[in-house]
Amino acid sequence: MLVKEDHILQAAQQLFQKYGWQKVSMDDVAKAIGKSRSSLYYYYKSKEEIYAAVVNMEVDDIVDKIGQAVEQVTGTEEKIATFFTTKMHLMRKRRELYGSLEAGMNADEISSLSGIKRAGHARIMKGEGDLLKEILKQGVEAGELRPIPPREMENLVFVILANMHGLKREMLLAEDAPKIDTLAQTLSQLIVHGLKA
């Protein structure tokens, strides 16, 4: 009997988080799911493939949870603030996973995973970008925001996401960073004020 892929990925994620990338083998993942290594190879040919799938699973989960949180509120300003606060809370929880993955890795190993990380980053930018476009389109339809031409929409979404990523990085580095909710309100007010109908 074959095992479900999500079972493999959840087991691999837990192993990576607990032991780091370097100390986890394909045998370890197979053992964690109670299957043979050959069963694992039916789905994934290498630890790198499993890592890429874990990253994709994480990204999809983050985007889904942000989308669900945004659906619970009304108004463009509140939706943007909820988008940012939810993203920040999720990223703080997942920081452990990503920090532990690289523990004990040498430069060649870190470099070999950089392509997977870039692909994961592109995937999250796309998913979050689609969510933001929908928020802004709803704001235009509700008369809260002025019409936004397609090219401007692409640029605007990129700028908003880049600012959110920059704020996230600064908050992680700063010891006395303002609270997430305060920053989210400030950012969403700036965006909505600049795009008022």
From TrEMBL:
HTH tetR-type domain span: 2-62
What GO molecular function annotations does the UniProt record carry, in alphabetical order? DNA-binding transcription factor activity; transcription cis-regulatory region binding
Cross-referenced PROSITE patterns, in alphabetical order? HTH_TETR_2
User: Which keywords appear in this protein's UniProt record, sorted alphabetically?
Assistant: DNA-binding, Transcription, Transcription regulation
Question: Which Pfam families has this protein been placed in?
Answer: TetR_N
- Return the annotated DNA-binding positions: 25-44
UniProt name for this protein = TetR family transcriptional regulator
- The species is Dinghuibacter silviterrae
Which taxonomic lineage does the organism of this UniProt entry have? Bacteria, Pseudomonadati, Bacteroidota, Chitinophagia, Chitinophagales
